[in-house]
Design goal:
Mitochondrial carrier fold; transmembrane; globular; 353 residues; MCP_dom_sf; 73% helix; Mitochondrial adenine nucleotide transporter ADNT1; membrane
């Protein structure tokens, strides 16, 4: 009992000390401690990882969203290659990266918070697990990693959701749209004024539900695969050995494939719910001025029901091919970039520690 009280006092003391050090650093009183610098470097590494990975696959990200929300009565994007060619032909090279600035403005803080939250959640869950089992040498299991990843995904997604909301609309609009969002802040302001503050969180529920298997599986599969490869006989590595960058990329690709396949239908529903209330959504997607008005959804279940009833079950996987092509390298690049940047910044703590 005494040891538990000492442990709780130590945690509380650490939090207080970090807060005081941050204040002193802003006021120029003294240099930040190694612990505070480690946290900042971890956040920077996560942000860089998110920005690099998303920019690398920005054209596929835009095509995925266009496929998800296009009007079924006026098909313009019929596949990955055709869709990319159509965007290039009608909007030029810059059209392939439309909405990427907004995406990076969202994903950089999202990725920073996600990776850092995973590290902290992992440590907290491991501490509770060791306390419950009485085994001080216990390691994180795939299920515990899944839980830590789910916590990290929910925290990061909720913190940056309005940015994701307007990013979807900026990505969908074209030069023929009757009303143009001029940028991130203009879109946020316009949605807030015309549709109300709650509109900024349209599709939040399926996002929360979807982020649990998506982010959770990403971290769980990535870390578990790394552990398995280190311990497997073909590699003959000990626990202190490092896998090659190529092997880590393969682990990240596998993690991304599993996570996105499970959570993809929820991503489609989220994106469609985000378009509800935008009176120019249909014309933005089809550009023909004669398309039917977008469906209205009363909630997540209603969106699922109407999508399947009107377009079939396959509609829940619209855009899956470009998303698969996008997610595999994106997740792989994000994980590896995160670890490389942390090594470059000299941070000893890693996501598998």
């Amino acid at each position: 009992m005494a040891s538990e009280e000492r442990s709780e006092r130590t945690v509380s003391s650490t939090i207080v000390n970090l807060a005081e050090e941050a204040k002193d650093f802003r006021e120029g009183v003294k240099a930040p401690s190694p612990a505070f610098l480690s946290i900042c470097k971890s956040l920077v590494a996560g942000g860089v990882a998110g920005g690099v990975s998303r920019t690398a696959v920005a054209p596929l990200e835009r095509l995925k969203i266009l496929l998800q929300v296009q009007n079924p009565h006026s098909i313009k994007y019929s596949g990955t290659v055709q869709g990319l060619k159509y965007i290039w032909r009608t909007e030029g090279f810059t059209g392939l990266f439309k909405g990427n600035g907004t995406n990076c403005a969202r994903i950089v803080p999202n990725s920073a918070v996600k990776f850092f939250s995973y590290e902290e959640a992992s440590k907290g869950i491991l501490w509770l697990y060791r306390k419950q089992t009485g085994n001080e040498d216990a390691k994180l299991t795939p299920v515990l990693r899944l839980g830590a990843g789910a916590c990290a995904g929910i925290i990061a997604m909720s913190a940056t959701y309005p940015m994701d909301m307007v990013r979807g609309r900026l990505t969908v609009q074209t030069d023929k749209s009757p009303t143009q969002y001029r940028g991130i802040f203009h879109a946020l302001k316009t949605v807030f004024i015309e549709e109300g503050p709650r509109a900024l969180y349209k599709g939040w529920l399926p996002s929360v539900i979807g982020v649990i298997p998506y982010v959770g599986l990403n971290f769980a599969v990535y870390e578990s695969l790394k552990d398995w490869l280190i311990r497997s006989k073909p590699f003959r590595l000990n626990e202190d050995s490092e896998l090659s960058v190529t092997t880590k990329l393969a682990c990240g690709a596998a993690a991304g494939t599993v996570g996105q396949t499970v959570a993809y239908p929820l991503d489609v529903i989220r994106r469609r719910m985000q378009m509800v209330g935008w009176k120019h959504a249909a014309s933005v997607v089809t550009g023909d001025g004669k398309s039917k008005a977008p469906l209205e959804y009363t909630g997540m279940i209603d969106a699922f029901r109407k999508t399947v009833r009107n377009e079939g079950f396959g509609a829940l996987y619209k855009g899956l091919v470009p998303n698969s092509v996008k997610v595999v390298p994106s997740i792989a690049i994000a994980f590896v970039t995160y670890e490389v940047v942390k090594d470059a910044l000299g941070v000893e703590m890693r996501i598998s520690d």
